[in-house]
Write a structure and sequence with these properties.
This protein is of the alpha+beta class and 417 residues long. The chain contains 14 helices and 10 strands. The chain has a 4-stranded mixed beta sheet with strand order 1-4-5-8, with helices on one face. A 4-stranded antiparallel beta sheet has the order 2-3-7-6, with no helix packed on it. It has a two-stranded antiparallel ribbon with strand order 9-10. Strand 2 (166-170) and strand 3 (173-184) form a beta hairpin. The longest helix has 28 residues, at 270-297. The protein is globular, with a radius of gyration of 22 Å.
Length: 417
């Protein structure tokens, strides 16, 4: 067999992605005919429209609007929006299946699509007024509204209840003042859910959330932070100075002596954490796809690489790690009530998959050797992209703390004193 990766005489090579046959057994057999058709459609748009541009988004750090258009044209962008707001009304599981297939070839594109399937609109649907839902959700369904979340601050990352942004009552509305950082996709968002607190409140008390539309007076231009991976969807920082928030844009009223907002703050991330886990699984599967294609093609010592037992075992371990992640992610996506997946199942899936994707992409690089390390081959990009998934949406350390608290029946405070 000709080595498709290397022409020895010219000392040059071209990357070739060899897609394995679509898996039909195991978990895939659990899908309904409709769900399987959704998966196949997502795979087709990923291979045909997203994969050719994946390196471009990474190199240029441009937002992948082209990918959004392709997913919309495939009838997948509005998949999970309730029918009364112009969507198809599918479940969180269908949304996770789609982002998994997209992440298999381009994580930046999957991250751009994620808000439409598993993102902030779910908080609007579950917590917002009838008027707010009717005003905001149709724009998500038709792809015209771009959502982001403003929660993290320079002094409030994992310690989410340490946020200092204020939501101050002013007449029949509120004033928003503070600084938000690490807003994924915030530079292109026209609708941002911003978490803040009532003046004078501390810790878990007094937390609320408002919806900021467009670029109102008092909101700074987003400052984009260059980053290691997922470079097509930037992180940004924004300052708010006495931004007027009308009463109809208050999602969670900040009540100084109430902890209700803090609990909502934690739970509203769970759909996105399921999507995060799905992207981890998809990205890892893409790395395994590339590894399997390489092993079937490359020869050393007069034999194909797939004939070496040590590499066979490595591939088996990668596949096992991925399948365990998929089991956990599907279980989390199917769980829960009131529109939010079960916290225990979600944190298990998020923790396992965000560490699993690092193991799998690292093994892929080692298997491909110099070609895995080269930027001409997508595995290097996959490795960089996967690293950020263990940070965003809750770090692996925070997931462990929360899981341990559930096991022990008590949450041990990490605060001093």
């Amino acid at each position: 067999m000709t080595d498709k990766f290397l022409d020895v005489e010219r000392d040059s090579w071209e990357p070739v992605l060899l897609d394995p046959p679509a898996p039909e057994g195991g978990m895939w057999g659990e899908l309904t005919a409709e769900q399987d058709e959704i998966r196949r459609r997502a795979r087709e748009v990923a291979v045909t429209h997203l994969r050719p541009w994946a390196a471009h988004w990474d190199e240029t750090e441009e937002f992948p609007f082209r990918s959004l258009d392709a997913v919309k044209d495939a009838g997948l962008l509005d998949l999970c929006i309730p029918e009364e707001y112009g969507g198809q009304g599918k479940s969180l599981l269908e949304g996770c299946i789609v982002v998994e297939e997209l992440a298999r070839v381009c994580l930046s594109s999957a991250m751009a699509v994620q808000p439409y399937l598993n993102g902030p609109w779910r908080a609007i649907h579950e917590l917002g007024s009838d008027e707010m839902r009717a005003r905001l959700l149709p724009g998500v369904a038709d792809g015209s509204r771009h959502f982001a979340i403003g929660m993290s601050e320079p002094g409030a990352g994992s310690a989410g209840t340490d946020l200092r942004t204020e939501i101050r009552k002013d007449g029949d509305g509120y004033r928003l003042s503070g600084f938000k950082s690490w807003m994924t996709g915030g530079s292109v968002a026209d609708t941002i859910i911003v978490f803040g607190r009532a003046p004078g409140s501390q810790g878990p008390y007094g937390i609320g959330a408002v919806v900021v539309n467009g670029r109102p007076e008092g909101m700074s231009e987003p400052h984009v932070d260059a980053k290691m991976g997922i470079r097509g969807v930037a992180e940004c920082s924004v300052r708010f100075e006495d931004v007027w928030i009308p009463a109809e844009d208050v999602l969670i009223e900040p009540i100084a002596d109430s902890k209700q907002g803090a609990q909502i703050l934690v739970n509203q991330f769970n759909p996105e954490r399921c999507g995060n886990a799905a992207m981890c699984v998809g990205l890892a599967q893409g790395a395994l796809d590339a590894t399997a294609g390489y092993l079937r093609t490359r020869q050393q010592f007069g034999r194909h690489l797939y004939e070496f037992q040590g590499l066979q075992w490595r591939v088996a371990d990668m596949a096992l790690d991925i399948e365990l992640g998929r089991v956990m992610m599907w279980r989390a996506a199917r769980s829960g009530t009131a529109g939010f997946p079960d916290a225990w199942q979600t944190m298990l899936a998020k923790l396992h998959t965000s560490e699993m994707v690092q193991r799998v992409t690292n093994q892929a690089i080692q298997t491909l050797g110099a070609r895995g390390y080269s930027r001409r081959w997508p595995v290097e990009r996959m490795f960089r992209d996967g690293r950020g998934l263990a940070i965003g949406g809750g770090t692996v350390e925070v997931m462990r703390n929360m899981l341990a608290g559930m096991v022990l029946g008590t949450r041990v405070s990490q605060r001093r004193g």
